[in-house]
Amino acid sequence: MPAGQERALRRRIRSIESTQKITRAMELIAASRIVRAQQAITAARPYTVRMEDVVAEIAGAPEAKDHWIFAGGGQGALVLVLGADRGLCGAFNISVHRAADELLRELEAYGPGPDVIAVGRRVRAYFGFRGRVLAESVEGMSDRPRFEDAQRVVQSVTRQLESGDIGQIYLVYTHFVSIGSQRVESRRLVPLELPQREGSGTTVFEFEPGPAEILDRLLPRWLEAEVYSALLESAACFFVAQQRAMKAATDNADDLIKTLRRQMNRARQDAITTEIMEIVGGAEALREAGMGEQTAGRPDIYVFPQAS
């Protein structure tokens, strides 16, 4: 039994060591992709900031304050939920799912159920398991999002905005603050809050065409910039979460291997002790058998004949 236990432990150790090689490789890959994701966020940030400045500039015109992008349009609501296509990333997807559920409960308490666009295979699977019908599901862009991916997501949103089916757009994603800090955010994109302009200057701009028409043309570009920025931050947060999860898995594998090796050594010692006891027992039996043969020829031992 101890020998069989030792073989089983040895096989299990080899299996864990193979898994540990995979987790360590995934940890290194995720760590390398974090840097690339940070560079993409830094490169896209000036465009997003400048787009916000343009919207704030146009919002300063008195006739622009009544535009539906600030005042609201249709009654329907749309929620964009940005998750991941893959797992093995700790609580990354679970946190996004919880934030989306909380937002949906709040919206359903004040009106009809909002439409949901799921970005990521895990988000689609989660809402499918919950029985919620999705307006659209997009996959294959969570690892390396491109600006074309954001345009594809915004196209369907823009159509519903132009038709008047929806008047509110919400975004649920993981905001990348730094490598050591990430948080899930739920924020409203439309209606847009009027930006607070700094200073008390009296500069007056004349817009051609009018501010309303400019906002109508600018809205898809602004939504694309916001969604693209959120996709980049979500991708960076995913790699950070995956790197942490794989590092924890690698460390846990180390601890488990040490524990199993102690058990294997103990089982080996038990097997050696058992073998020694068997050898000693066999030697003792042979010694007793040899003593019996010696006493058989002694003259002081008389064997009585059997009666006929």
Let me know the CATH homologous superfamily of the domain at 26-196 and 206-242: ATP synthase, F1 complex, gamma subunit
User: Unreliable runs, pLDDT <50, ≥5 residues?
Assistant: none
Query: How would you spell out the order of helices and strands?
Result: HHEHEHEHEEH
The pLDDT mean sits at 84
Number of strands: 5
Fraction of residues in helices? 55-70%
Globally, the shape reads elongated
CATH architecture of the domain at 26-196 and 206-242: 3-Layer(aba) Sandwich
Number of helices: 6
Question: Which topology of the domain at 26-196 and 206-242 does CATH recognise?
Answer: Pyruvate Kinase, Chain: A, domain 1
Largest sheet: 5 strands, mixed
Spatial sequence of strands, sheet with the most strands: 3-2-1-4-5
**Proportion of strand residues:** 5-15%
Computed Rg: 36 Å
Q: Which CATH class of the domain at 26-196 and 206-242?
A: Alpha Beta
The assigned structural class equals: alpha/beta
N- and C-termini, Cα separation: 54 Å
Which characteristics define this entry?
about 300 residues, alpha/beta, Pyruvate Kinase, Chain: A, domain 1, five-stranded mixed sheet, 5 strands, about 65% helix, about 10% strand
Structural write-up:
By secondary structure, the chain is of the alpha/beta class. It has a domain at 26-196 and 206-242: 3-Layer(aba) Sandwich (Pyruvate Kinase, Chain: A, domain 1). The protein has 6 helices and 5 strands; from the N terminus they run ααβαβαβαββα. It has a 5-stranded mixed beta sheet, with helices on both faces. Helix 1 packs antiparallel against helix 6 (211-295) and helix 5 (147-163) packs across helix 6. The longest helix is centred in the last third of the chain and has 85 residues, at 211-295. The radius of gyration is 36 Å and the shape is elongated. It starts with a helix and ends in a 13-residue tail after the last helix. The model has no long low-confidence stretch (mean pLDDT 84).
